């Protein structure tokens, strides 16, 4: 049941990304269902590989939002927009995305397996790790309460019930099996989902705007009717990938961003799983297998790359179960439900506001995990306060500027004739974690480095022999 709970938690991102991208690519509801199946299948494979050969931490690997900017650039490219037939445009766009993912994955594979990324992670002290991990959670704030507010009667109830079960009732019941503490999401989601279905069949959303129906109705996703009963995703199922140098360079920026975010998430997972901080070579090895995961995403055509699932990292903190076996069981559920499409689509049709309510709690736990790293830092030092404060502030402020600029102008602040350059700048500086890491690592390793080893918490990361 704990493994199934991890599967339910990662479904939100798995459904959201294809639901947003596939219609823009010209795909139908059937195409969207098949892409979701492919993303689930690859997520299961990547989770197995990461827990067996990568960092060997209980980390779930899912879809990544870091790839959206270069993917949207590919979708909106003139050569694809000129295709009038929607089905042909979908297949051509998917092949272009596949080619960019396959080629760009080489960056992370090389950095990881060569050990170069491990050299960089040695510059990450607890002082630099704290804002990085905190921004892993805080950087996704847009997926939290704004999603809850799209259907308050469902999202807010899920939020309140989840807090009640996981906090106030966690010790109620059997001490041998604390059900509320271990499975608050499995207990709360069915209740609110049933309530949403009751509102739907009673006609509560009969005369509301279409956007409200989309977020509130329990039968609006149209995934169950579109999904096949049995279908096994396979490599190159959309056809032979097409390659473009400019699109590959733009996608490499997303790969680098995903690499930074995954490293911070690995540190959060190790902390929440009560493990010791992973050594540099472990992080590097995990990053290499993460690159293999992006390669698989490109081969299978999942519409996006992969990264460590932040929400599942937060779930470790709620349940206090940091077992690799549980995560591997969840990977089995991912693969099973990706093959038996109707069953997978049933759970994937959970209304988005329910997932947003879950994110409010889980992302907050990950953010607080980053803050907990400050216990190893001397907070009486103005140097420490300056670095942490500036990294956190810039990590939130800079991406906010980029998102507001894009919303008003229709393109990012970087808008030149070189699309690949635009994607690199707009992708990197739209990532809260990447901006925060750049600020924290630069300041932490260039100002009073030797004199402040204890203040930075280095003896905790690298204890003396």
How would you characterize the overall build of this protein?
The protein has 24 helices and two strands. The chain is mainly alpha-helical. It has one domain. It has a two-stranded antiparallel sheet with strand order 1-2. Helix 1 packs across helix 19 and helix 5 packs antiparallel against helix 15. It is globular and about 65 Å long. The mean pLDDT is 91.
Strand and helix order: HHEHHHHHHHHHHHHHEHHHHHHHHH
Beta strands, count: 2
Biggest sheet descriptor: 2 strands, antiparallel
Proportion of residues in extended strands: under 5%
Number of domains: 1
Query: By helix and strand content, what is the structural category?
Result: mainly alpha
- pLDDT < 50 stretches: none
GO molecular function: transmembrane transporter activity
Subcellular location: Membrane
Transmembrane segments: 6-26, 57-75, 96-117, 123-143, 155-173, 185-205, 326-348, 354-377, 384-402, 424-443
Family: Belongs to the nucleobase:cation symporter-2 (NCS2) (TC 2.A.40) family.
């Amino acid at each position: 049941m704990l493994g199934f709970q991890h599967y339910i938690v990662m479904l939100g991102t798995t459904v959201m990304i294809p639901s947003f991208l596939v219609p823009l690519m010209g795909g139908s509801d059937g195409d969207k269902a098949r892409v979701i199946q492919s993303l689930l299948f690859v997520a299961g494979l990547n989770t197995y590989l990461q827990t067996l050969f990568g960092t060997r931490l209980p980390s779930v690997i899912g879809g990544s939002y870091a790839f959206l900017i270069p993917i949207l650039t590919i979708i909106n490219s003139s050569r694809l927009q000129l295709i009038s037939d929607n089905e042909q445009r979908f297949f051509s766009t998917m092949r272009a995305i596949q080619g960019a993912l396959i080629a760009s994955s080489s960056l992370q594979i090389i950095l990881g397996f060569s050990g170069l990324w491990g050299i960089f992670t040695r510059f990450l002290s607890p002082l630099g790790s704290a804002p990085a991990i905190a921004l892993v959670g805080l950087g996704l704030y847009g997926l939290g309460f704004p999603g809850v507010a799209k259907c308050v009667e469902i999202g807010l109830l899920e939020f309140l019930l989840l807090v009640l079960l996981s906090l106030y009732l966690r010790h109620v019941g059997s001490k041998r099996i604390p059900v509320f503490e271990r499975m608050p999401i499995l207990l709360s989601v069915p209740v609110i989902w049933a309530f949403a279905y009751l509102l739907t069949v009673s006609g509560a959303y009969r005369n509301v705007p279409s956007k409200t129906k989309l977020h509130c109705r329990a039968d609006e996703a149209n995934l169950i009717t579109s999904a096949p009963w049995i279908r096994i995703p396979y490599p190159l199922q959309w056809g032979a990938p097409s390659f473009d140098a400019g699109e590959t360079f733009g996608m490499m920026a997303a790969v680098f961003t995903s690499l930074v975010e995954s490293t911070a998430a690995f540190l959060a997972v190790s902390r929440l799983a009560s493990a010791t901080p992973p050594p540099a070579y472990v992080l590097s090895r995990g990053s290499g297998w993460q690159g293999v995961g992006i390669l698989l995403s490109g081969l299978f055509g999942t519409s996006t790359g992969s990264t460590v699932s932040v929400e599942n990292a937060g779930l470790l903190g709620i349940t206090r179960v940091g077992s690799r076996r549980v995560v591997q069981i969840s990977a089995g559920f991912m693969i099973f439900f990706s093959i038996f499409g109707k069953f997978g689509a049933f759970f994937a049709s959970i209304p988005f506001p329910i997932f947003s309510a879950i994110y409010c709690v889980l992302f907050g736990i990950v953010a607080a995990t980053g803050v907990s790293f400050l216990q190893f830092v001397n907070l009486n030092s103005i140097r420490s306060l300056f670095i942490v404060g500036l990294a956190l502030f810039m990590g939130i402020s800079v991406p906010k500027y980029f998102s507001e600029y894009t919303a008003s102008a229709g393109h990012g602040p970087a808008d030149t004739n070189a699309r690949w350059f635009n994607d690199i700048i707009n992708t990197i500086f739209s990532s809260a974690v990447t901006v925060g890491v750049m600020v924290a690592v630069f300041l932490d390793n260039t100002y009073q480095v030797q004199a402040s080893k204890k203040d930075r918490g280095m003896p905790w990361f690298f204890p003396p022999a």
